[in-house]
Structure formats: C-alpha cells, structure tokens
Amino acid sequence: MINLLVHFVLMLAMPPLLLGVINKTKALFAGRKGLPLLQNYYDLIKLARKDVVISQTTTWIFVAAPVISLTGIVMAGLLVPLGPFQSPISFTGDLILFAYLLAVGRFFTTAAALDTGSPFEGMGAAREVTFACLSEPVLFFALLVLAKMSGTLILGDLLHAPLTVGIQGAAASLVLVAIGMFIVLLAENSRIPVDDPNTHLELTMIHEAMVLDHSGPLLGLILYGASVKLFVLSAVLLHILFPFQSGYALLDWSLFMVEMLGVAVAIGVVESIMARLQMRHVPYLLIAAILFCAFGFVLLVR
Amino acid sequence: MQYEIHNGLVLIFAATIIMIASGLPACFFDRRFVWTQRLTTALMLIGSVLGWWGLVVASFGTPASSIVWDWHLPAGHFSIGLDALGAVFLIPVFTIPVLGSFYGLSYWRQSEHPENGRGLGLFYGLLAGGMALVVLSRDSVLFLIAWELMAMAAFFLAGAEDEKAEVRRAGWTYLVATHAGTICLLALFALLRQVSGGFALSTVVDGSLTTGIAATLFVLTIIGFGFKAGLMPLHVWLPGAHANAPSHVSAVMSGVMLKMGIYGILRVLTLLPVTELWNGEVVLGLGAITGILGIVFAIAQNDIKRLMAYSSIENIGIITMGIGLALIGRALHRADFVLLGLGGALLHVWNHSLFKSLIFLNSGAIMHAVHTRDMNRMGGLAKSMPVTAGLFLFGAVAICGLPPLNGFASEWLIYLGLFHSVGAGSSTVWPVGVAAVALAVIGALALACFVKIYCVVFLGTPRHPVHGQPHDPSRLMRYPMMLLAGGCVVLGILPQLGFPLLQNAVEQWMDPVAPAIPQLASAAPFQWISSMAMVFIVLVVGGFVLLRRKIVRQAPALVGTWGCGYGLATPRIQYTATSFGEMLVSLFRWVLFPRFRRPAISSVFPAKSEFSTEVPDPVLERVILPAFRQAGRNMMKLRLLQQGRIQIYLLYVLAVLVFLLGWGKLGF
C-alpha cells in the first residue's frame, strides 16, 4: 500500500526534477551556472496561474488535447512498475494498452497543433506522426524480447523479467534492446539528437513547434505531460539497464530515484556532446534503433 | 426432401427476400414521385427488423438449422442455414444498409436525382439482400448465384453517376476484378465438388486429400475471395469503386461487402481438413502486407474517399492477420491462437463496419457542404459543421485503434494472440511474433493518416472559398451517424456484449478434434479494459470541464494564430493534406512511386508556374494496365471471333457445349 502511494507521488512529483537535472548537466558542460534545479516547478506554478490566449482559429480540440494527452500518459504510467516494485494496475495484455495510451496523447497533441492553422505547427505535427511510425516498432520489438524472456503478457512482470528470470543467455539481446530503447527515449521526448527542446522558432523543431500557440495552463499541462512521459519511459528503460533489488523497500526506492537521476544525467551528457541531426537523417537513427531491437529479438529466439 | 423449420432462420430468410425486393415496388411509380424512396426505405427497415428479430430468436434456439428445397436447376439444391459464424456476418448486413438507406433519404433525394434514384434503391436492396443470401447459402450453386447478385448490384451502384467518365472507368475495373474472383470461385467449387462429392457447403472434406489438391483449394480460396475482400495486390478495383459511388453505397460496400470476402474465406476453410502451417503463415504475411501497404497508400491520397477506401484495405489486412493467426493455431493445435486470432478478426469485422460506415457517411456530409472530394481544398469545417466534425472524430479515433473506442478492443485481441506465439516455446512459431510489430506499424501509420484527414478537413481555416455556407446535414443524415458513433463507444467499452456469439463462432470454426477452447472472457481480461476506459473518459471529461470553466471565467483574449512575427498569414500557408503526408510518402516512395510535376525554371525572372503531385495506385498503373494493354495488342487476331451478333455468340456456346459433351462421352 505504501509502495503504491510512493509510486503515485514519485510519478506525479518527480518528473520536472529530471528536466532540471538535464539542464544542470548541460550547463555544467557549457561552463554555465544554469537554471536552478527546481526551475521547472516554478515555471509550472507560474503557468498555472496565468491567463490563456487562444487563437480564433481553434476549436475545443485545442483545449481538450493537453488534458487527454496528460491523462493518457499518467494512466500509462500506472501500468509501469517503478524499480523492483509492483505497478498499481496490471493485467494480461496491459502492455498493448500502455503503447496505445501514449498514442492517444499523440493523436490529440498533433490535432491541436493543426487546429491552429499555423504552418510551423503543421510541420511539427507531420514530423511527430512520421517519427512515431519508426519508434513504435522499436518499442514493440523490445516488448517482444521481454515477453519471450518472461513468458508473460503482463507489463509489470514482463519488465521485471531481467530481475526475476536473470539475464543469463539474454544479455546480448538486452544490451541491444537497451540501446534501441534509449534512442526511442530521446526521440519520444524530443531531445537532441532528434529535436532540440531549447529553441522554438525554427523550422527544424518537432515538439516545441507543435505547442507554439499554447499558453498559460494549457502550456503547463503540455510541459508537465512531456516530463511525466520522460519519467515513465526512463522507468521502462531502467528495468533493462539496472535489474537490481536489495529487498529493503526504503533502499530500493532511493536506489530507483538515484537511477532515474542517472538517466537524466546521461541524457544531459548526450545532449551536450552531440549536435542535432539533420531532419532528413532522423529516420536513419530510428531505423537503426529498430534494427538493434530486431537483432535482439532474433538473437533470443534463434 | 428435408424440411425442417426453425423460426429464426425463417424470419431471416423472409428478411432477406424483403430486402432483395425492397426497391422493386418503387419501379412501378413515376420517377418524380417522392414517396417511392420512402417506401423503399420502409421495406429495408422491415427487412432489417425482421432479420434482427430472427437473429435474436435463433440465438436462443438450437445453433444449427437449415432449410433445403429441391429446385429445377441441374445442380445443387436450394439450401440455406444459419450458424454462429453466419450470424456474426449477418449482424452488419442487417444494421449498416438500413442506416445508409435512411441517410440516403436526405443524401440522394429522389426529387434531386430522378434519373437514377429508383435504380439506386433497387440495386441497394439487391446488394443488401444478396449479401444476406451469401451468408445463408449452404450450397455452392446457390452461393455463387447470391455472390453474383451481390457483385452485380454493387457494380450498378458504384456506377450510379455513369455520365462521368471516371465513374465508368472505376466501374469497369470493378467488373473485371470481381469476375476474375468469380472465375477462381467457380474453379474452387468445382474442385470441392470433385473431392467431396456434392455441392453442399457443409460436408467437411476428409483428410485423404493429396497435398497438391489441398494446396490448390487453399490458394483458390484466398485468391477468389481475396478479390472481393481487397487483399493486396488484388485490391485494384477498390479505391476507384468506393470513391465514385454515392457515400451511403460506399459505406455499405466498405463496411459490409468487403467482409463477404472474409466470410467466404472463413466458410470454405471450415470445409477443408486441418491445414498445414504454411497456410497460416501465408495468410498472416498477406494480412501484414495488405495492412501496411493499404495504410501507406491511404496516407498518400488527397481524395477523401479514396483515402478511406485504402484505409478499408488496411483494416481488411488486420482482419486477415487475425485469420492467419487462427490458421496457425489450427495447424499447431493451439486453441488460444485460434480463439484470440479469430475472435479478434470477427470483432474487427463488426468494428470496422461501424466506424468505416460512420466516416463514409460523414464524407457524404462533407461533400454536400464543400462540393469536392479534394482535401486540399477543405479546411476549418469544424466551425461550420460541429456535429459532423464531432462524429468524424469518433470514427477517426476508433479506426486508429485507440482506446477507449472499439478499434482498440479487436486489435488488442489480435495483439494478445500474436504475443502468445512468442512465449509458445516452439521454435517454429516465433516469427509470428514479428507480425505484432507489423500491427504496431499499421497502428502508428493509421494514426498519421487519420490525424491528417481529420485535421486537414475540419481544423485550421478554409483553404479555398466554398459556394454557400457549409452547414451540418439534416437529421436524417445525422441520426444514422450518431447511432454508428454510439456503437463505436459501446463496443469500445463493453466488447464483452459480443463475446457469447464470437465464442460460438470460434468454436464452430475450430477443428472438432482440437483441444477444448478456453473462454474468450478469461483469455482476454476485458473487464480491466472497460474500467480503464471508463476512468479515462471520466478523467478527460472532468479535466476538460474544469479547464474550460477557468478559461471561460477568464474570458481569453481572442487573437489570431501566432505567425512567428509574420503578420500577413493567409490560409494558404497552412499545411495541406499533401504536405502533411510528404515525409511518409517519401519514406515509402519505393513502393508508392509518387508522380511530381515540377515547374521548370528557365529564365532569370520565372513566370507563374504550378506544382502538382499525385500517387496513383501502383499495382493498377504499373502492372495491371500495362499487362492488359499488352494483352489487347497480342490478341488482335482473336477479334475475328467478335462479330457483335448475338446469334453467332449463341452458336459459340452451342459449339462448346457439343464439344464438351463429346469430350465427356469419350471419357477423358
């Protein structure tokens, strides 16, 4: 019961901190002082209290999309176990629901972007749905590998497979899957080398270009939703990277939080040392990710 | 003579007759008499109510029932029957056409179309009744008669506006394709007659077939019915016929008629002995290819109805993947594969008939408003047609397979089945798991496709001036769409409602010697999906209402869209249907072969020029048409036979008959 509560609290409260850690890491690399660690919380509070500016072109979709997207992400987060603990909700086949809850968010975020009639947002939306077509197979190959290892279709048990079944005989597959999933983590959360979260007004952006017209609480919901998505996908990745368990709840929770921050640092490092890819090269990166995971699957079942 | 009356079957048979004849009385009245169309619709309604009544009665009676009469044809009997598999397919037949018929009262008014209104009603009834008869037939001769009734009625419906050259061309393509399919079916049933000794569609062929004959039967089944279902690459007739038919006809053709191909495959497979593994693998692969290519072609379209037609091909692909999984399960004696694969496929048959009919009816409302099918000339319709836009959103979300609507339920079942195969342990099965990835790709592409269609048509600002003010259609057109959208919600949250019938159908389809089949409800814990869906809806609606209230209280400043500092934004700078799909089209250009007409810039001050792009069907344009042209050139000499006199053709028939009789006498 306590673990359940911790799951909720961590999933809802921790995500903006991850963004703070990423920013701090990038600042360190650049030799800057950087934003305060908690800046994203301040931003969210500020946005929640602001008024909204709404384009006359838009319909109710524009207002509903952030709500739908956030709901989808949070409900998907309830299916993912954090660290060695059980997920709040689990049933046979919830792994598909996980992927499709994220997709519902994508449908409405891109619809809201096109709702404004702005060419920038249309551009962002077109890229978002295109790249999603390439990151979806990565996720499903990864799920197939884990399903094969664990012999179950419950997302919680499946993600715990490296922990419970052990990585003997599957280590190579897991390494490949981890690489693929890390690329998807970067792509789905609009990080360098796929997208740059720091610039808005360029023709080269994906996610940031889609939310140009959102303001106030609407923008807050979108930014918060994006951070929760980063948290959830990182939690998925951690099951493959660090399948460890001490057996003591307190220790495990702290370990999990440290691991999460570690992922954030890793993302920050990647963002610091890499340049953003040309937009026409992004598909190659994602196809490479598909191939990594496909190899992982073939290695396991051969 | 067997004569066994079963109430449910008799009711359904009566319903079929009424539907077939529904357009007939109208033909005796004057073409300007508006009540004729209402009479036709009333008869369709009576037929559908009787049919549903029969289905309900039959579901409480014995599952298998039949009526067999002798007739005067030299072969076969008049033999009809009803079982769970048939009932699954009869439900859309008794639901969609009647809704389309009411829609047609306003969409295709007799007073506005006096030239073809009555004919449309006649063939519409023939199509609906023909489909019911296809499902009821238990004799291959009767089956073929019903099949041709359905196919020819669809030809005349698709060609309703035959004054347009494009419509005529689409109609001819359909006619050629459907008869190519029928030829395969003739061969199939002749071969079946040879090995089973009768025309009845109930004798299971025993296992003594040679592999060659079994394989031939299987291939003929897939090709013959694949033409009707629209499996790649046999889909060539589908986009043209669907795009050019009146919208309520497209809804019936796509929502119900394509499923008759699926029904045919499933029905014939019940007659064949236990299949081999490769059969299932071929079907699964065909399904995956059909699904992926179907939706990729869809993304490349700018004609709203062609896009929807290609999306039907994609959905047929998903259904076919389910059937392939079930076949693999039958070969390996894995009851769970059969249950999840076939259960998911049959559920998707229902779901697709709901959401695809919904969006086809919707496309009719859009075309009434903007008088074009070209999405690049639409935009911003949600403001002037809020009800249509809202209803379309239901269809779009459902067709992408997104929770909480019905598309998710059936795709989820198929996913579960595919994932089961990975854990199966047997080394022969694991490639099946890769099909789950194909299904995921289909899902992501479908999302791109329907974001494109919904947003380009309804959101943003109008890209092109429209004659008159677009407005929501009349109630007669709205209510059928609302019922269909309601169906999408109900089957999305409570798909369990259909489980008893699906379970019966799967059990009946499964080999009798196979291990006992588990319950669908226990194999797929839908109570969780239901509760998650309801929580999702409550949270979204609650959050939206709260946010909306805050925004209304604040009375937001209404401004234009932020143009990044550019003040002279026009509707023309918006993303269009073409530009939204451009990245995906170029990713798949190796299969789409898009055609660009680029302006050639020759002077220092280039003149006004144009750019255009189109993606015609590559199979039709690059394979079929060149082949037909070549064949036409090579067979010039045979034109000697084509004299254009009916007497000479009758002579040919007589000559062939005499030849065949002589051949038979000689005993070759």
UniProtKB/TrEMBL annotation, chain A:
Tagged with keyword DNA-binding: no
TM annotation in the entry: 60-83, 95-114, 159-187, 221-242, 249-270, 282-301
Source organism, top-level taxon: Bacteria
Major site of localization recorded for this protein: membrane
Any one of the GO CC terms: plasma membrane
Pfam entry (one): NADHdh
Subcellular location, record wording: Membrane
Molecular function as annotated in GO: lyase activity
Membrane topology listed for this record: Multi-pass membrane protein
Keywords carried by this UniProt record: Lyase, Membrane, Transmembrane, Transmembrane helix
InterPro entries noted in UniProt: ComplexI_Subunit1, NADH_UbQ_OxRdtase_su1/FPO
Protein name: Formate hydrogenlyase subunit 4
Organism: Pontiella sulfatireligans
Gene (UniProt): hycD
Automatic annotation (TrEMBL), chain B:
Domain NADH:quinone oxidoreductase/Mrp antiporter transmembrane residue range list: 138-419
Transmembrane segments: 6-29, 41-64, 84-105, 117-135, 141-160, 172-192, 212-237, 249-270, 282-300, 312-333, 353-370, 391-409, 429-460, 481-502, 528-547, 646-664
One Pfam match: Proton_antipo_M
Keyword Oxidoreductase found: yes
GO MF term (any one): oxidoreductase activity
InterPro entries: ComplexI-like_HydComp, NADH_UbQ_OxRdtase, ND/Mrp_TM
GO cellular component: plasma membrane
A GO BP annotation: ATP synthesis coupled electron transport
Localization, UniProt: Cell membrane; Membrane
Keyword Transmembrane helix part of the UniProt annotation: yes
UniProt KW keywords: Cell membrane, Membrane, Oxidoreductase, Transmembrane, Transmembrane helix
Superkingdom to which the source organism belongs: Bacteria
Topological relation to the membrane, as annotated: Multi-pass membrane protein
Protein name in the entry: Hydrogenase-4 component B
Source species of the chain: Pontiella sulfatireligans
